[in-house]
Amino acid sequence: MNTSAPQPTRSTALNRSSLSQQAVEELRRRIAGNDLAPGQRLDEAALAGDLGISRTPLREALKVLSAEGLVEIRPRRGCYVAEIVPADLEEIFPIMALLEGEVAREAALRVSAADLKRLDQLHASLERHAADGDVDRYYEVNYVFHDALQGIAGNRWLQHVIGDLRKLLKLSRHRSLRLEGRLEESLGEHRALMQALHQRDGDGAERIMKGHLLAQLAALQRLMRGLSA
């Protein structure tokens, strides 16, 4: 007589996978929005109840987030939202500068008239939000702008690696754009980038994008020094 436990059907496995993916997306949103704060210990039972799922798909979701660096699973101690410290930023931003610099170079060489029209529209939104001093909206549109550049570059491996690093950078509660004068500096860097893109200047676009990312790091460092003073 076979007493082994019944194996889950394909349908059950797919349903569980769907629940796990939904949990990943919701937890990513909460971490990015600081609803789950850096360093916070995650109560699995309470979180599963809040999400309306069992602990099995929740644990699968936490494993995915752990692989992305968004949470830290500590044996016998539980699961915690990851924290980004200044040393992390100093290591991540130079890598991002290289990767996004390559994106800008490839995009400048591939960009079409339709692409430029879309980028011009996004840049016009950045101009408006900067004029209004609306840092939150500027940040949102800037995120879309960088996504659009990655799409134009068409390098899926760059997109994948940059996507993971951008998720990590969202853990930082410090926003460089809130530093006095940084919003105007960022807009100036975007203007220069748009000029390089219109000229199909790959080397220029790469150089400007690298400078743009490293300027963000410098602003964050100044901001964090001010907070710790």
Automatic annotation (TrEMBL):
One of its GO terms (molecular function) is DNA-binding transcription factor activity. InterPro entries: GntR_C (IPR011711), TF_FadR/GntR_C (IPR008920), Tscrpt_reg_HTH_GntR (IPR000524), WH-like_DNA-bd_sf (IPR036388), WH_DNA-bd_sf (IPR036390). Residues 17-84 form the HTH gntR-type domain. The keyword Transcription regulation applies. Keywords: DNA-binding, Transcription, Transcription regulation. Pfam families: FCD, GntR. PANTHER family: TRANSCRIPTIONAL REGULATOR, GNTR FAMILY (PTHR43537), TRANSCRIPTIONAL REGULATORY PROTEIN (PTHR43537:SF50). This is DNA-binding GntR family transcriptional regulator. It comes from Sulfurisoma sediminicola.
